[in-house]
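Suppose a classmate hands you a notebook page containing two proteins, each written out with its sequence and a corresponding row of C-alpha coordinates. How would you begin to make sense of it? This section walks through that situation. The first entry is reproduced here exactly as it would appear on such a page.
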Amino acid sequence: MKIEKFEDIIAWKKGKELTLLVYSVFKTCKDFSFKNQIERASVSIMNNIAEGFERRTNKELRNFLFIAKGSTGETRSMLDLGLELKYIHEKDFKIMYNLSIEISKLLSGFIKSLD
Protein backbone atom coordinates (compact mmCIF):
# COMPACT_ATOMS: atom_id res chain seq x y z
CA MET A 1 0.00 0.00 0.00
CA LYS A 2 1.36 3.36 -1.03
CA ILE A 3 1.16 6.04 1.63
CA GLU A 4 -0.66 9.02 0.14
CA LYS A 5 -0.55 11.37 3.13
CA PHE A 6 1.14 11.41 6.52
CA GLU A 7 -2.20 10.77 8.23
CA ASP A 8 -2.05 7.27 6.72
CA ILE A 9 1.16 6.41 8.58
CA ILE A 10 0.44 4.10 11.53
CA ALA A 11 3.27 5.58 13.62
CA TRP A 12 1.73 9.06 13.12
CA LYS A 13 -1.71 7.78 14.20
CA LYS A 14 -0.20 6.14 17.29
CA GLY A 15 1.81 9.30 18.00
CA LYS A 16 -1.38 11.33 17.90
CA GLU A 17 -3.06 8.82 20.23
CA LEU A 18 -0.14 9.13 22.67
CA THR A 19 -0.21 12.93 22.48
CA LEU A 20 -3.93 13.05 23.24
CA LEU A 21 -3.38 10.73 26.23
CA VAL A 22 -0.50 12.87 27.51
CA TYR A 23 -2.60 16.04 27.29
CA SER A 24 -5.51 14.32 29.01
CA VAL A 25 -3.54 12.66 31.82
CA PHE A 26 -1.40 15.71 32.62
CA LYS A 27 -4.23 18.24 32.22
CA THR A 28 -4.30 19.05 35.95
CA CYS A 29 -0.54 18.71 36.58
CA LYS A 30 0.65 21.75 38.55
CA ASP A 31 4.30 21.32 37.54
CA PHE A 32 3.93 23.46 34.44
CA SER A 33 7.50 23.02 33.28
CA PHE A 34 7.19 19.21 33.45
CA LYS A 35 3.77 19.32 31.79
CA ASN A 36 5.04 21.56 28.99
CA GLN A 37 8.08 19.35 28.34
CA ILE A 38 6.17 16.07 28.08
CA GLU A 39 3.47 17.66 25.93
CA ARG A 40 6.07 19.11 23.57
CA ALA A 41 7.98 15.82 23.38
CA SER A 42 4.84 13.86 22.49
CA VAL A 43 3.69 16.43 19.91
CA SER A 44 7.17 16.28 18.39
CA ILE A 45 6.66 12.60 17.54
CA MET A 46 3.69 13.16 15.26
CA ASN A 47 4.91 16.50 13.89
CA ASN A 48 8.30 15.16 12.84
CA ILE A 49 6.68 12.25 11.04
CA ALA A 50 4.40 14.73 9.24
CA GLU A 51 7.18 17.17 8.40
CA GLY A 52 9.48 14.43 7.13
CA PHE A 53 6.77 12.95 4.94
CA GLU A 54 5.92 16.32 3.42
CA ARG A 55 9.57 16.88 2.44
CA ARG A 56 9.01 14.19 -0.21
CA THR A 57 12.49 12.64 -0.16
CA ASN A 58 13.38 9.40 1.57
CA LYS A 59 16.60 10.94 2.91
CA GLU A 60 14.75 13.76 4.68
CA LEU A 61 11.91 11.49 5.79
CA ARG A 62 14.45 9.10 7.32
CA ASN A 63 16.11 11.98 9.20
CA PHE A 64 12.79 13.22 10.60
CA LEU A 65 11.78 9.67 11.58
CA PHE A 66 14.97 9.44 13.64
CA ILE A 67 14.03 12.73 15.33
CA ALA A 68 10.53 11.36 16.00
CA LYS A 69 12.12 8.24 17.47
CA GLY A 70 14.22 10.43 19.76
CA SER A 71 11.10 12.30 20.86
CA THR A 72 9.47 8.96 21.61
CA GLY A 73 12.37 8.16 23.94
CA GLU A 74 12.11 11.59 25.54
CA THR A 75 8.39 11.10 26.14
CA ARG A 76 9.04 7.68 27.66
CA SER A 77 11.75 9.16 29.91
CA MET A 78 9.36 11.87 31.07
CA LEU A 79 6.67 9.25 31.73
CA ASP A 80 9.09 7.38 33.97
CA LEU A 81 9.89 10.58 35.85
CA GLY A 82 6.18 11.42 36.10
CA LEU A 83 5.53 8.05 37.67
CA GLU A 84 8.37 8.50 40.18
CA LEU A 85 7.08 11.97 41.07
CA LYS A 86 3.58 10.52 41.45
CA TYR A 87 2.18 12.81 38.76
CA ILE A 88 0.51 9.81 37.10
CA HIS A 89 -1.02 6.52 38.16
CA GLU A 90 0.67 3.23 37.32
CA LYS A 91 -2.23 2.25 35.02
CA ASP A 92 -1.89 5.42 32.88
CA PHE A 93 1.88 5.04 32.87
CA LYS A 94 1.69 1.47 31.54
CA ILE A 95 -0.73 2.40 28.77
CA MET A 96 1.39 5.33 27.57
CA TYR A 97 4.70 3.51 28.09
CA ASN A 98 3.54 0.54 26.01
CA LEU A 99 2.23 2.86 23.31
CA SER A 100 5.58 4.64 23.18
CA ILE A 101 7.39 1.29 22.78
CA GLU A 102 5.01 0.38 19.95
CA ILE A 103 5.65 3.73 18.23
CA SER A 104 9.41 3.28 18.57
CA LYS A 105 9.20 -0.16 16.94
CA LEU A 106 6.97 1.15 14.15
CA LEU A 107 9.44 3.96 13.48
CA SER A 108 12.37 1.52 13.41
CA GLY A 109 10.55 -0.63 10.87
CA PHE A 110 9.66 2.39 8.76
CA ILE A 111 13.27 3.62 8.80
CA LYS A 112 14.52 0.16 7.75
CA SER A 113 12.02 0.10 4.87
CA LEU A 114 13.60 3.30 3.51
CA ASP A 115 17.14 1.84 3.39
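The notebook's second entry, a different protein, reads as follows.
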Amino acid sequence: MIKTLETTGLVCPFPIVEAQEAMQSLNKGDGLEIHFDCTQATESIPAWAAENGYTVSDYQQIDDAKWSITVIK
Protein backbone atom coordinates (compact mmCIF):
# COMPACT_ATOMS: atom_id res chain seq x y z
CA MET A 1 0.00 0.00 0.00
CA ILE A 2 1.23 3.49 -0.86
CA LYS A 3 -0.15 6.44 1.10
CA THR A 4 0.20 9.97 -0.32
CA LEU A 5 1.20 12.84 1.95
CA GLU A 6 0.77 16.36 0.55
CA THR A 7 3.11 18.80 2.29
CA THR A 8 3.38 21.35 -0.49
CA GLY A 9 3.41 24.83 1.03
CA LEU A 10 4.87 23.69 4.36
CA VAL A 11 8.32 24.97 5.29
CA CYS A 12 10.98 22.76 6.86
CA PRO A 13 10.94 20.93 9.17
CA PHE A 14 7.19 20.38 8.80
CA PRO A 15 7.35 17.99 5.79
CA ILE A 16 9.48 15.63 7.93
CA VAL A 17 7.29 16.11 11.01
CA GLU A 18 4.22 15.19 8.94
CA ALA A 19 6.07 12.24 7.37
CA GLN A 20 7.13 10.88 10.76
CA GLU A 21 3.53 10.96 11.96
CA ALA A 22 2.24 9.33 8.77
CA MET A 23 4.85 6.53 8.91
CA GLN A 24 3.61 5.49 12.36
CA SER A 25 0.30 4.35 10.85
CA LEU A 26 1.94 2.27 8.10
CA ASN A 27 2.93 -1.39 8.23
CA LYS A 28 6.38 -2.67 7.31
CA GLY A 29 6.60 -2.80 3.51
CA ASP A 30 4.07 0.01 3.01
CA GLY A 31 5.14 3.21 1.31
CA LEU A 32 4.64 6.90 1.85
CA GLU A 33 4.69 9.18 -1.20
CA ILE A 34 5.58 12.67 0.02
CA HIS A 35 4.95 15.72 -2.17
CA PHE A 36 6.88 18.80 -1.06
CA ASP A 37 8.26 22.15 -2.25
CA CYS A 38 10.69 23.00 0.56
CA THR A 39 14.16 22.91 -0.99
CA GLN A 40 15.79 21.93 2.33
CA ALA A 41 13.68 18.77 2.32
CA THR A 42 15.39 17.57 -0.85
CA GLU A 43 18.29 16.60 1.42
CA SER A 44 16.61 16.24 4.82
CA ILE A 45 13.89 13.74 3.80
CA PRO A 46 16.32 11.21 2.23
CA ALA A 47 18.64 11.64 5.25
CA TRP A 48 15.72 11.08 7.65
CA ALA A 49 14.68 7.98 5.70
CA ALA A 50 18.21 6.52 5.86
CA GLU A 51 18.56 7.28 9.57
CA ASN A 52 15.34 5.38 10.25
CA GLY A 53 16.16 2.39 8.05
CA TYR A 54 13.58 3.24 5.40
CA THR A 55 14.16 2.71 1.69
CA VAL A 56 13.70 5.47 -0.89
CA SER A 57 12.06 3.76 -3.87
CA ASP A 58 11.31 6.80 -6.03
CA TYR A 59 12.54 10.38 -6.00
CA GLN A 60 11.74 12.89 -8.70
CA GLN A 61 11.50 16.58 -9.35
CA ILE A 62 8.02 17.39 -10.59
CA ASP A 63 8.71 21.00 -11.64
CA ASP A 64 11.06 23.87 -10.80
CA ALA A 65 10.22 23.84 -7.10
CA LYS A 66 8.26 20.67 -6.35
CA TRP A 67 9.41 17.13 -5.62
CA SER A 68 7.95 13.72 -4.91
CA ILE A 69 9.70 11.03 -2.88
CA THR A 70 8.43 7.58 -1.95
CA VAL A 71 9.75 6.09 1.28
CA ILE A 72 9.15 2.42 2.12
CA LYS A 73 8.79 1.49 5.79
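A careful reader of the second entry would note: The chain has a mean pLDDT of 97.
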